[in-house]
Amino acid sequence: MKQYKTLSIINLKQLLALFVVIMFNSVVCSQTVVHSFNELLPYLDDDNVQVKLKPGNYTITAKDIQDGNFTSATVVKNRANVLFLFSGNNSVYDFTDVIISVETAVLSAFESKNTELYEIQIIGNKNVLKNLTIADVGSVNDAPTRRATNIVMDGASNRIEGFHITTKGSYPYGYGEAFGKGGKSVINHRKHSSFLVRGYKNHAKNCTIIHRSYGHAMFMQAADWPIIEGCYIEGTMRSTDDMWTEKGTGSDADKVNFKTVFGYALPKGYMMCLGEEGIRAYNGGETIIDGKEYRRGTSNPTIINCTIKNMRAGVTLTHATGKKYVSGTTAIGCQRGFCIGTGDIVDCYADTQHGPALGVDYPSDQGMNAEITLLPYQGDSYNGGGHAAIVTGSNHKIIFHNALPNADQNLKINIGGDNKTVGLLNKDENYSASNIILHNFTNYPVVLDDNSKNCTGVSVGEITDEGENNHILKIVELN
Q: Regarding predicted confidence, which is higher, 10 or 157?
């Protein structure tokens, strides 16, 4: 009997404990629904909240800014005006079935002319923002006063998931990098990028970016262990021949006589992205974590299961450090598919219509392992450089699988030599390549430059060897 009573007491305690847990979780996990921006904004600096904006269409106008409906949140040494600043921790913000239209006039509506505009910025930790559709609405030529970015991730262990972003509004638009991009420009630029990942272990997942501005689609600065997963990015291409049709029209290009930032007249025969990189890592930048500012490069980036279409490059990680990993990712119609310098490219895909599927930026780059399936494309090639791939540096292992029936024999897999892109025509880049292992299962021809040596492997495509001590064996493709 005594044992029975003891068990009853224990069971009662367990039931009470379970009840407390259930009640606690119901409080913690309860979701607050807000019906306007005015109701939403006070929650953005809160910890441990779950907030849902009522489904519907919302618009932000220049008048909203002028009327003070969005308090200008200035962060990072007065460099950015922010529409929505998420500074709390451990919170979830649900924007399912919400569309926010930002009129492009907002890009130049703030009184401060020397700061950037961020439409959304996270500086807290362990937050989740999900399922928002945010679109810039207006002219592609409505440029920011200085510079703009739709989404900026700082802080640590945040996740943005299921966003659909349409980016619009920059100057000049229609030429890509032809007339400048950084400090040196023939035409002064006011860029507008889509998505900047900074901070520590931040995660962009299953987002779509429709990119119609001059700037990057997704890029990383001062980011450590960032993850970009399942994202779709789409830009716009324009041929340099089409740009020349503006001659005599008084356009921006015509006003500078088509003299590019590269020091020569715009060459014909190239396809250029009107934005910049699809996914790009930088070796500098600054970020905020726990209220503290850090200046550093990008390290240990992971790119998984993304698709990048019609951008200047699919994935460029050359300037990142640490472990670089790209897997299951496809580059379609880009000026260049992949370029990571060192690290791993696993089970990826690219075509060669507008540029090489694979590139290497510097002869000092070494130790890249790349496995890429080369894809067919519709229409004619518009690949002015003539490269299916350009590999320089040393100690790389490259595997090209075949998914196209008839490779364009005018495009070459070059091992060493000149990387004749639209921006490098006046440079003698006779880069070296050594100790490269190449398994080319496509029938693209392989050309080993006279600056190549000690390269080995096999190739279905024809081989031209002008180098030293190379041993790449011609094989027959097995069906």
A: 157
**How far is the C-alpha of 446 from the C-alpha of 473, rounded, in Å?**
11
pLDDT in the model for residue 382: 93
Which residues is 73 bridged to in the sheet? 82
Which two three-digit tokens encode residue 22?
């259930």
What percent of the chain clears pLDDT 70, i.e. is strictly above it?
Answer: 91
Q: Is 241 left (phi over 0), alpha (psi -120 to 50) or beta?
A: alpha
List of E strands, 162-285: 164-168, 192-200, 203-205, 208-212, 218-224, 227-229, 232-234, 237-239, 271-273, 279-281
Q: Would you give the DSSP letter of residue 23? A: H
Per DSSP, the residues of 191-207 read: -EEEEEEEEES-EEES-
Report residue 132 as tokens.
């928002």
Strands 148-153 and 192-200 turn out to be parallel
Beta-sheet pairing, 292-295 with 286-289: antiparallel
Identify the band that residue 74 occupies on the pLDDT scale cut at 50, 70 and 90: low
* Per-residue confidence band for 188, with pLDDT thresholds at 50, 70 and 90: very high
- Distance between CA 93 and CA 201 in Å, rounded? 19
Please state, in angstroms and rounded to a whole number, the distance separating the CA atoms of residues 417 and 450: 8
Nearest partner of 217 among 309, 116, 124, judged by Cα = 309
Judge residue 80's burial from the number of C-beta atoms within 10 Å of its C-beta, 0-12 exposed, 13-18 middle, 19 or more buried. Answer: buried
Confidence class for position 73, pLDDT limits 50, 70, 90: low
Please tell me the distance from the alpha carbon of residue 452 to that of residue 470, in angstroms, as a whole number: 8
The structure tokens 């340099």 sit at 240
Closest CA to 265 of 182, 179, 183, 189: 179
Read off the pLDDT band of 28 (50, 70, 90).
very low
**80-100 average pLDDT score:** 96
Backbone φ/ψ region at 283: left (φ over 0), alpha (ψ -120 to 50), beta: alpha
d(CA 324, CA 280): 12
- Report which DSSP code applies to 427: S
| pLDDT of 16 strictly over 90 | no
**Residue 95 in this model has a pLDDT that exceeds 60:** yes
| Mean of all residue pLDDT scores within the chain | 92
Q: Assess contact for 396 and 368: CB atoms under 8 A.
A: yes
